[in-house]
Design brief:
Blueprint (H helix, E strand, L loop, with lengths): L1 H16 L9 E7 L6 H4 L3 H8 L2 E7 L6 H10 L3 H4 L6 E3 L4 E3 L7 H4 L5 H6 L5 E5 L15 E2 L8 H14 L4 E8 L3 H7 L4 H24 L6 E6 L5 E2 L5 E3 L9 E5 L3 E6 L3 H9 L5 E5 L18 E5 L4 E3 L8 E2 L13 E4 L7 E7 L3 H9 L25 H30 L20
Parallel strand pairs: 1-7, 1-8, 2-18, 5-6, 5-7, 10-15
Antiparallel strand pairs: 2-17, 3-4, 8-17, 9-16, 11-12, 12-14, 13-14
Helix pairs in contact: 3-10, 8-10
């Protein structure tokens, strides 16, 4: 009985251990289509992307970090850190000590990025490896004095084809070999802002173009012989929601502009008071019922958005679909940045390659979980991070994973087997111990005396 139990649990331990050894470093390409909302997959046709998913894995929802904007979330994906930890807390930032400003037009100062170590830097510092990047945010900045060996300075005018050409060339012809590469594309984010995600006609056209680009990516990898040995992750930074001119929060109706500076605007606005903070807070608090107003120390813990000097003293968070403005005009028909618990803010993740299962679907992971998974695939030691590798184990072929219902089933099944075996052993022992009727009396070999006188 003890032997059976030992064998059962040793087998489970062996399975759980997995096998992460590789003779050669794996290669990984990380691709982001900005603003790709998760439920676009259900509401539109994506023949190329669906073929990619059929041969790989799909995570239907990725819970991203708050605030759900482009720069913060792209940096969370590649560092595994919440924004308060990696320091890119918004698309626009201000540092009160250095008086420095950050924006998507002025983002090259390493000062803003050096609070974390992105995966391309970690990979770059490994022996006989290099990294490459086609316009992923931060890759054209010398973070900790290191850039990828091959990168492109950001320019939205550069075509997807040119970016893809460079990435595939670097993956094939570099020495030391490129083992980690990133590729970024601005759509469907740009069109989501322009038309709004509920504009079916225009979004259908744009999303078809995105799917065609995915088809071009897969075709290129196959033609160049990279497809079977390269791990590819396709994901995004955030989703998109519809905005309306009937859902405006006009700060000018509540407080005079001279009393504060607006560091970042809508739908999460960062407010730096010029006068007494309490006075500014009290005025904004009663401004609009569709806007939550937080002092920095009162920001909900679930946002993980409090412990960094770049987070301003007052944060305004609009309800989904509402826009914070300084006048009555609506700047965008679609927007993101809202509460990261909203499904409209969630992107998806699809992956294909030798590291991933085929035809597997998973409900959800966190965006910070992607980083430890990528480090595992590349054989890198991850820096301290907020991700959980266990959340992504089910995606990987070298990891043993099981969900709760399956675990319960296995435990119950094992108990039933053990109970059955125990009962059988007891029954057999009882049968052997009961004397058979009319059995002949057996004499011992050394018994010389007769039994009956």
């Amino acid at each position: 009985m003890k032997l059976l139990v030992i064998l059962l649990f040793s087998g489970l331990i062996t399975c759980c251990g997995g096998n992460s050894s590789h003779s050669l470093p794996s290669k990984l390409l990380l691709v982001s289509f900005d603003g790709f909302r998760a439920d676009y997959l259900q509401n539109y046709e994506f023949p190329h992307l669906q073929n990619f998913i059929k041969e790989g894995v799909l995570v239907e929802h990725v819970k991203n970090v708050f605030i759900t904007k482009t720069f913060p979330n792209h940096y969370s994906i590649v560092t595994g850190l919440y924004e308060e930890s990696h320091g890119i807390v918004a698309n626009s930032m201000y540092d009160v000590i250095t008086k420095k400003h950050f924006s998507d037009f002025d983002d090259k100062d390493p000062f803003w990025w050096n609070e974390a170590v992105p995966i391309w830097v970690t990979n770059q510092l490994q022996e006989n490896r290099s990294s490459a990047a086609a316009m992923w945010p931060g890759t054209d900045v010398p973070i900790h004095n290191t850039t990828p060996s091959y990168f492109m300075n950001y320019s939205s005018s550069v075509s997807f084809e040119e970016r893809l050409n460079n990435i595939t060339m670097w993956l094939m012809n570099s020495n030391p070999p490129v083992t980690f590469a990133t590729l970024y594309w601005e759509e469907p984010d740009a069109s989501g802002h322009k038309y709004g995600p509920e504009d079916k006609e225009n979004m259908y056209r744009v999303l078809k173009e995105v799917d065609d680009l995915i088809g071009e990516l897969v075709h290129r990898l196959k033609v160049l012989g990279l497809w079977e040995n390269l791990n590819v992750i396709i994901t995004s930074d955030h989703g998109m929601t519809q905005c309306s001119k009937d859902k405006l929060i006009n700060l000018d109706l509540c407080i005079d502009r001279s009393s504060y500076t607006l560091v970042d605007l809508t739908p999460v606005a960062a407010v730096l008071p010029k006068i007494n903070t309490t006075e500014v807070y009290n005025k904004l608090k009663v401004c609009n019922p569709h806007m939550n107003v937080y002092l920095k120390e009162d920001i909900p813990a679930r946002f993980h958005y409090q412990h960094n000097d770049r987070i301003q003293p007052i944060i305004l968070v609009a309800d989904e679909g509402w826009t914070i403005v300084l006048n009555k005009s609506l700047p965008k028909l679609g927007d993101h940045g809202y509460d990261n618990s909203l499904s409209s803010m969630h992107p998806f993740l699809a992956a294909h390659g030798p590291a991933f299962h085929k035809g597997y679907k998973h409900s959800t992971i966190n965006s910070v979980d992607i980083y430890p998974m990528m480090c595992h695939i590349l054989g890198l030691k991850p820096h301290p991070n907020n991700g959980t590798f266990g959340h992504t184990k089910c995606l990987l072929v070298d990891q043993w994973c099981i969900n709760l219902p399956e675990a319960i089933g296995i435990v119950i099944g094992a108990l039933l087997v053990l109970t059955t075996l125990t009962c059988l052993i007891i029954i057999m022992q009882n049968r052997l111990s009961v004397p058979r009727p009319f059995s002949r009396l057996q004499l011992q070999e050394d018994d010389d005396d007769p039994l009956i006188e």
